[in-house]
Specification:
Elements (H helix, E strand, L loop, with lengths): L7 H8 L4 H10 L4 H19 L4 H7 L5 H12 L3 H12 L10 H4 L4 H9 L12
Helix pairs in contact: 1-2, 3-6, 4-5
Length: about 130
């Protein structure tokens, strides 16, 4: 069952018997936020799903509460530096004792669609950004 995180801060605050503002303030005092905690949980669960199951990336995105699989793929690339399917293939190759470059080419197996290609190609620039762009 997919998880809805839209009302989660308010629901958690209510369960803790504090206001949503107090929850935000207390998390801020601890140097974090609900969004940061949510990202940490999503990242951990995404890695567990990818490594320990055969669940499709699209289904993982739904389970983690992403409305669009492209948003999940973008977040995963931000967290780990590679696409979820590449991460899965590399982890499985490592478990078999293969170096990452010997991992199966998951892009070759992917369905060629203009939408998938656009998502994959626009996520990372083809060349490094100039030093002054940072």
């Amino acid at each position: 069952m997919p998880v809805s995180f839209r009302s989660a801060p308010e629901r958690i605050a209510r369960d803790l018997r504090v206001s949503a503002r107090t929850l935000r303030r207390r998390l801020g005092a601890l140097g974090t936020s609900f969004q940061e905690l949510l990202e940490d949980v999503r990242r951990g669960r995404a890695i567990a799903y990818l490594v320990e199951s055969e669940v499709a990336v699209e289904q993982i995105s739904v389970q983690l509460g992403y409305g669009d699989p492209a948003n999940f793929r973008r977040a995963f690339r931000r967290w780990e530096g590679v696409a979820p399917s590449t991460y899965r293939a590399e982890r499985r190759a490592a478990a078999q004792g293969l170096p990452p470059e010997r991992a199966p080419d998951v892009r070759a197996k992917a369905v060629d669609s203009p939408a998938r290609k656009a998502t994959d190609d626009r996520a990372w620039p083809a060349r490094p950004l100039p030093a002054d762009a940072e």
